[in-house]
Fold these 4 entries.
Entry 1:
Amino acid sequence: MKGMVFLMKIFKATWILFFLHAIMMLAHSRGLGDLVGSILTLPPPCSLTVSHLLHVVGGRQEFQEELMNAVAEASLLRNRMPASLVDLKVGNRIIAKICFIDGICWAAKMVEILDYDRPTIHAIQALILVQRYCPVIPISKVKGCSERKLRYCFTEWLEGKPLADELEFSRNTSISIPEKLVTSLAEFIFNLTMCPIPMNECKQSILSLD
C-alpha cells in the first residue's frame, strides 16, 4: 500500500512538472516555424550564417528538422528528459536555446560538419580542460556533441549579451567600454592564465588537432 502511495506521488509530481514546463514554453517560446522565419530576415553578417547553413542542410524544412533533432539529442543526453526549443541566436554560427522540463537550459551551437574543424575542436577541448582543472572559473560547461546534417555541441546556457553588444561605438570609431566590463574581463583573463592545466594535457590537445 505504501509503495502504491509513493508511486502516485511520483506520478502527480511528474505531471505537475510537465504542466509547469508547458506553461513556461507557451510564455517564453515561439513556434518552430516562427523562430526560423525570424532569423531569415536578419541583416548581414547574420544573414550569411543563416543562408550558408540552410544551403548545407538543403533548405528551410531540412533546417527545421535539424533543430528538432538537436532537441531530441539534448533530451537523450539528459536521460530522455522532455525539452523544447525556446529561441535562436545568430552570430558567426546559429545557437539554439533548448530548455528542459526542470527549467535548466542548454545552448546548442550548430555548425557545418567539416573533415578538419580545428576551431570547434580547439574550443571544445579548451572548455573541457578549464572545466576539469579550474571549475570555479565561470565558463559554459560542455555537455556533449552530436551530429546529423549539422554538428551540434551542447553547453550550459549563460544569460547575457555578446561582448560586441556591450561596446559603444562612436562616429570616429572610438570605443567606450563600461568599467564593470573591464574589471570582469581582466579578472577572467587573469584566472584563466593562472589555471594549473598540466603541460602534458595541453600538448595532447595540440597534437590531436594536427
Note: The longest strand covers residues 83-90.
Entry 2:
Amino acid sequence: MKGTFFNDGKEFELETMGESWKQNELIRGKVNCKSGKGTDLSVVLAYADLKDVWAKNEKGWEIVEEKKIEGDGANFSWQIKLAPDSYVSEKNASLFVLLKVGTKVIGHLQLAVEVRPMLKSFIETFELFYRFKTHSFKNRKKGFLEYKMLPPAIRDYANMDQVLVGMRLANDNLEVKYTFTLKSLGMVGAGQTELKKNKKEIEQTLTKKDYEFCEGSHNPDGMKKFIGEALSQAAPKMLF
C-alpha cells in the first residue's frame, strides 16, 4: 500500500510491504521524501474509530507504538511488530500507520489486520460442531477479542439468547471468557409470569497441549471438549 502526503511544500510517500497481516506478524515499510531531505520523521502504529478518522479528530488516535526514523535523508525503511494480542480490523475501527513530522500527523494508511489462526480455529470449532453463528466481534481491553455468537434454533438451546466469547493468548495459554444470556420464566404476581434474561459467566484456560497437536497444528477435538463443557455448565439440561 502507498500513500502520498504533503507538508510545508515537501512531498512524502508512505508505503507498506504487503496488504494484510495477522496478529504477531511484522509490518515492514518505507518512507520516501520526494522533494529534498526528510527530518524529524516518525512512523506510528495507532488505533482509531473510523468516524474519528473521517472527522479528522486528532484526539481519536490511540497510540500503540511510535518509531523515530533516524537519519537525515530522502529514503528510509521501517518495521513494527504487531503484538500477539494486537487490535484487529473491525467494521468500524482499525489499526493505522501514521506518518508524523515533529508532532504533526501528515498522513495515514489503514491496515488490514486479521485474527491469529488459532483464535479463528476456536470460533470455527464453535460454528462447525455446535452450529452457533458469529453475529459480530469487537476488540476489547487487555487484548481480548469478543465474539457475539447466536445459538441454532433447536430445543437444546431454547433457553439461550446469545453468548459472548472473549479470547486472548497469554503466555501460550488461551484464556476464554463466556458470558451467556439465558432466558427463563419468572413470577411477577399472582399467577403471572414474565420472560427474564439472566447472565452467566464461565472462564476457562486452555494450555498449548489442549489446543494444539504440535506447533501450528490445531486440535479441534480439544477445543470442542472445552466448548462443550462451558455449554453444559451454562445450561445443564442440554444434551451433548
Note: The chain has a mean pLDDT of 90.
Entry 3:
Amino acid sequence: MKRNIAFHQVNAKIIIFELKFYKDNGSAEKVELEVHQSGDSLLVKATNNRYPDLCPNRHINDGGWFCLGLGEDISQLTISQWVMNLKLYLDAQQKCEDKGVWPCGGEIKEWAHGDGAKYQKIVEQYYGQFQKNCLGLTLNQLRVVEVNSVKRDLKLYHVYANDELILVGDQNQVLNKRYACICDPQGLKKHLSIGKCSAQCSKVVFMVAINHYLLLKAEQKFWQSFGARTCCNTMKKCNFKK
C-alpha cells in the first residue's frame, strides 16, 4: 500500500483503508474500503453499504465487490497503478450517482459484463484495422450464424455481409485459406488468397464479426444468470427493471 494511505490490517488477508478522490466540482470525497486477498487477486468493496450490493451497470458484483476491469490487465498493474485505477473507479461511481449513467469517454474504460469483456478486448484489438481496410463494410452490415460441425466436432461461424456468405471459420481463425480474400472477390489480383493477403482483410473482418457476436451472446447469458433480481434504482437503465 502507498505510504501516504493509512490502513488497518484485519488479518493476514484483509485490510481496511480510506481512499480520497476529487469530484468534478473540486471537493474531496473519502470512501472506506475493504480489500481481501484471494489467491493472486485483490477483491475490493466499500464498507458500511456505501454502494449497492449489486449493480452490473455500475460494475458492482454480487456482495458489493468492485469490478475494476479485465482480470488479466488488472493483474499486471503495480500497486500505485492499482490505487490510481481504484480512484478512477470511485470517481466513475460518483458520476453514476450524479447522472445515473456510467461516464463515457472517461479515464476508466467500461467493459462488457462477464465473459463479454474478453471478446470486447479482441474486437478492440482488430477494430482500428477493420475501419481502415477500405472494404466499405460496417459492423452493422455483418451477421454471424453459429453452425455445429459434425466432422470437426466444434462450432463453426458463418459470416454474412449484406446477407451474402463471405467467410467461414471456427472461434480462432478463418478456414479455407486458399479461397480468394474478401478484398479480391472477383480474382482481379491474380487470386489473392486469404492466407496470402498482407492486409489480412478476411482475418480482421472475421475476428471483429464473431467476437462482437460472442460478446452480445455473453452479455445475454450474464443477465439471464441472475434470474429475478431487484434493481437498486440508481441507474437510468437496468435489465433488472421490470
Note: The mean pLDDT is 86.
Entry 4:
Amino acid sequence: MVGKIRVGHVEVEDFWVTVETNTPVRQEDVIRMSGMFPRDGTPVRCFRGDGTAVLDLVHPGEEVIVGSRPPPMSRTRKSVPCPNCHVAVPLSAGEAIGAHCRSCSTEFNLLSTHRLRVKWSRQMGDKRSYASGPVGRKSTIHIPVQVGPSLVGEEINAIEVSRHSRVNGAIHATGYRIRSYDCPYDPGDFGIVQSTGDNRLLLFDPKTGTASVEAKILENSLEATRVAEDKLGRRHFWVIKILHFNPVTRVASASVDRPYTWRMSQSRFARSMSKSSPMITSEGNDESPLMH
C-alpha cells in the first residue's frame, strides 16, 4: 500500500492535495510535489496541524499546511506524538479519546489528567451545573457536576476528553472528575464516554492510566437514549451518571444523563422529547438489568 501525505495551503481553507510516498520526504519536495510552490518565488514552508513549523522530514500519514506564515488559530489543531513511530498526529473532534496514526496504523489513548482549582460554576437547570477552572495558558476545562455544595475554590483531579480552539486563541476543554486511585468514582458523579468506536463506554482508570473502566448502562436508560438519538440526533459523547463503582472488578454501572448529553435543561429536554413520543425519565435510575 502506498503511503500518503495530506497537504493544504494556509490561504485556502478546505483544499487538500495528496502526495503519495512510502518514505519520509523533505518539506521542499512536499511543496514541489503538491504543486504549491508559488509562481512569484515567495518563500514558503510547511506547518503541522498544530501550527508549528516543520523542522525536518514529513512522514507518510502526516498532514501539513504550506504557506509563508503559520495557519491562523481557527485552523490549528492539537496534535500528539504517536507512541510507536513518534510522528505528530493531528486530532479532530471525533478522535478526542482515541487517535489513529496513519503512518504506522497505531491506535492509542489520548486522555490527559489535570490537577486544577475550580474558579467558576455555571448552573444548567435545577439539577445540573458545570464547574470550570484553568488548565494552562488560555485553557479552561468544564466539568459536569450535580447542583449542590459549590466546588469553587476546591482543588480536584479531572480527565480531559476533548477540546476546541476559538479564533482568539482561547482553548475550552471538556472533561470529568476523578476522585482517588482506588475508587475514582462515587455514586452521583458524572463521566463522559464515547458512544461508538474502540473506546466505546470506557472511563479513565488511574490504576492503568488508560480508558479501561467498563461502564455498563442500565437497559432502560440505553433504550431511552436511542429514542433521544432518533429525535435529537446522535452524539459522539454521552454524559453518564455513575450509580455504582466496583473497585475490585473496575466496572461501573451508570445511566445516560440525556439533558447533559444534549446540553439542555431538564425542562427543555422534556419539551423536545414530548413532541414525538411519551416522555421517558431522564435519570434512568431504576433497577433494570445491565447491558452495553
Note: The chain has two domains: 4-109, 113-291.
